[in-house]
Amino acid sequence: MNSFTLADCSTVEAALSQLKDGAIVKAGGVDLLDRMKNGTDTPTRLVNIRNISTLRGIHSTPQGLTIGALTTLAEVADDPTIRTQYTLLADACGHAATPHIRNMATLGGNLLQQLQCWYYRSAEFQCLRKGKELCFAFSGLNQYHAIMDYGGCPSVAPSSGAVALLALDASVELTSAAKGKRIVTIRDFYLQPDANPHRFHVMAADELLTAIHIPKPAPGTRSAYQKYGEKESHDWAIADAGILLEMDSNLCRRAVVAMGAASPVVRRSHEAEAALTGKPITHETARAAGQASMTGAMPLSMNAYKVQLFPVAIYRTILLAAGQMDRDPSAAG
Amino acid sequence: MATHTTNPYSDAILSAAADATETTTKTVSMPIGIPGYTLHEEKRTVPTSEPPVLPVNKDLDYIGKSPERWDGNAKVTGRARYTADVQLPGMLYARFVNASIPHGKILSIDTSAAESHPGVKGVHVIELLLGAAVLHDPSLERSKYPIVRYAGQPIAAVAATTPQAAEEAAAKVRVKYEALPFVVDADLAREPNAPLVFPGAADQAGTAGGGGSASGIPQTGNVHGPSVRKHGDAEQGFKDADVIVDARYTTQVQTHSALETHGVVADWKPELLTVYASTQGTASVREELAGFFRLPKSQVRVITEFMGGGFGAKFGAGNPGVVAAELSRKTGAPVHLMLNREEEHLSVGNRPSSDQRLRIGAKKDGTITAIQLISYGTAGCGTGAGCAGPATNLYKWASLHTEENDVFINAGPAAAFRAPGHPQGAFALEQSIDELAARLNLDLLDLRDRIDENPVRRVQRQIIRESALWKSRNPRPNADPGPIKRGVGLSQSVWYRHLSMNCGAEVRVHKDGSVEVLSAVQDIGSGIKTVLAQILAEQFGVPPGKVSVKIGDTNYPVGPNSGGSVTTASLTPAVRDAAWQAAQKFLASVAPALGAAPADLTLTGGMVRSVSGKFQPVPFRTAAAKMNTDEVSAQAKRIPDYDPSKYDTYGGVDIAEVSVDTEAGRIHVKRVLAVHDCGRPMNPAQIISQINGGVIQGISYTLFEHRLLDPNYGIMVNSNLDKYKIAGSYEVPQIEVQLTESYIGQSSTDASGIGEAAGIISAAAAIGNAVYNATGVRIRQLPMTPAVVLAALNQPQPSMESL
Ligand SMILES: Cc1cc2nc3c(=O)[nH]c(=O)nc-3n(C[C@H](O)[C@H](O)[C@H](O)COP(=O)(O)OP(=O)(O)OC[C@H]3O[C@@H](n4cnc5c(N)ncnc54)[C@H](O)[C@@H]3O)c2cc1C
Ligand code: SF4
User: Whole-prediction pTM value?
Assistant: First the structure.
């Protein structure tokens, strides 16, 4: 790790005024410190926002919920409102990483964590996403990589929180000293790798992610998120499913099927959603949705198993959301 | 039974018989066998100087009990000082400069920018690399610097006033390479036109922990082998067989990944080189440093106060020890050099992979007519990938044919790793035995009763047979209807009675009634400190917590290097002998004041007693005050086993319960019952801890751990602890350990070791067999990740006829 200076800020204004000359924001620091230790990031200035108390907390509003960007994953997972009304977000935050990490990691940092592709994370490999031309994963080791929508970069979306927030139609609030606040939906927040390989999202270097806004779910909404890893904890997803069902008695009025570990950007499967919409939730419809989710899958040399695993993750999570199955013992604990 | 043993620890074993120096002997009657099953008395002839025979554990006060870990408090309160914690005045911090390419010749090394970096006090460029195999004919390669044979190979090191300055300066060392073609895939390395890792024959020396290659083995291209063993006529054996089980098994490379990385603090002074080392052998570090720097051993002192795990990879000074000593000599200051996690994965050892073709021929009743094992494995740019131990030693066979081959690749050299070769070998053998039982429609335990005559294993199988977990096993595979299926599988393990005769201890008794034991032995976490305290406690009647244990320092009598499960078996008899002899000197010292002849005195149960009843028993402490000198002491060294002709193996029978999610491809280990023996259990809680650890490490090996090298660039992509996956608390099953208390009549403590037999050998096979029981599908590849499990389940299953 290189030497750096640390600016400890306790207000948003102070932090924004520090965001210049290549300074990097540190929230919980879980992702950032790893990158600095790997040598993939070598910032000379860090702006510590962890102690800005106004950015921490969960507030119910008439429209829904506002979560401060510095709220920890553990706080989100334990919040009674989120557990009951935004269940899949509590699930996602409560099953990411490990208990220790969830106590440190912030929701904002979780959404902004960078790719976990091991080539990206190694200072030895300068790939497409680091300003060079090559992707090392296609002809290299790609067992954890994407199976769909990957264009030139098959690293997968690492954030569990983002899967849940996509399903919930959430938005992020971005604040800068120059332009003030702007709101961007999660759907529009992340950039496909081919759009601009060097950028992951639309946030500018002088902006802070200050809050997450989630609209109130429609009546009759049930939701669940499950993450499948090789390990039960201390591991990223090899498959995951964020499911949101708007039910009219036993018919599904609207379904959202979101995935993270399938593609570089969190995505919804409209095929899977169509397989549920207007139908009752049964083992058959859930399995059909799981199968439909793999429309267009193009696995790489080492990850065909994911095409088998995602439908399982999705059907079981649909049934969990619908209250027809317990939490899967095969999913992360 | 088969008595031909593959011995990965030949250095550690000394022929006990040959070393016999004692002349006068006495005949004693010793407990032999297993209490509750086979316990009886047998005669042994032992040197007259030996202490009285120790009764079985239930008749002892401290030995065989589980007092609090002697240093547990220091560890959990953070008082324990590990090597990384050592701080000396004026100490510098060092960092390595490592190769960024997997194969190449170093053309030049420019250290000028590093040397002028603020805070830098010294730079050392490595000219002689340790650890890897070396060419028989070095002239085949002309190079000023060692040839780079793996990415991460240390090239140079920088010492500076802060760790930060050292790291920054190390990044400024400029190395120019002439890149050479490389190969990191063991299958590709076997092909005729593969890039050569070595241009000629090469061999790796073993360590006190094993590893290395046998001598006189042929080498063709990258294939160093075969090392062949033939007993009987295997060809005929297969002809005589009613069934032949023939299968291929593959296992991955595992890195040791001890919590504490390799490292030293070296302090070079003209009269004494002092090295604080994270090592499994203070003696081995001293040996290597004295040899490397041509120093008298008396001028090298090695200290290991606490140690955070080694698993076989921490013998000798190695590159970190030698380089830190060089830097200390150059700078005149102590040098602190701890590896980082990436270096730990890359350059200081690993468990070799294996690719095994195993054929077993048997009669209808299960009698084995022939075993043939052809194995290839890679130990990187080292050797030691043989894995025929279990096939050779677990069961009785009429003929045996094994061929072990090492395949060189451009990766870091292997090192001894907890039961070298045995987890790999047992993974294949015990699944094939399971398959054999299925083919012959024999009960798994009955079959083993037929082919394994070891009396201890027999009792252990009986314990398994009667266990609730085994009784809950459905003998029919794939019996559960749902997608998540339950299974129970079994595997045996075997390890050997290796000893280090090169060890001793001193015991001192002070006039204030305090007692202490001194030995250079290191406690690698397995708890030898507590065991030594128990031995003194038993002798003097002082609670173990009150005994002073001074170890981990070569200023004390030489200790065994802790490899091959030798420590407790080797050292405890010497300590008991020293304690006994010190007690006799103590009695002689208090005899005048007590008005008795020394021969009339005994020290038992903490009381000095007069055999003739001259006086009422006096507490040890009270008697000590009457000593006629301030201190008495005795030194003893390990004497040979009492009856080396009775060569004993240890091991165990383990069963695992798994659930297999056949849709998600996930294996979850729910319960393990491990039944193990290690002679007299000196401290059951510590033994159980080691078995728990072995089981967990075995599960981790079976399901998760995998060193991954990028095929195109030869660089390890998961050289950390998040993508190199290790079992964590969520993956740990409920583990029940049953110790088989087993007396073998070999020494004054009759203790044996447990480190290697403990769980690691059998875990993968037991889990593999449990998966088969659950699903009817055999997984013959490690690690059993969801990708591997789903691929295996997707395969059409061959019918019995086509096998
Ligand atoms: C072993 C392991 C397993 C894991 N498994 C999972 C998993 O299953 N699911 C999952 O979702 N995550 C997982 N993680 C990742 C972990 O959840 C993230 O690293 C963590 O959430 C990051 O949060 P942080 O607050 O520490 O972010 P930081 O490390 O502080 O920041 C991350 C990035 O975001 C930027 N940033 C942070 N906050 C702001 C802000 N408010 N405004 C602008 N920029 C900001 C930083 O500059 C940095 O680039 C795992 C991590 C580990 C180590
Ligand atoms: S998958 Fe993406 S991040 Fe990984 S090497 Fe390829 S381009 Fe780089």
Answer: 0.96
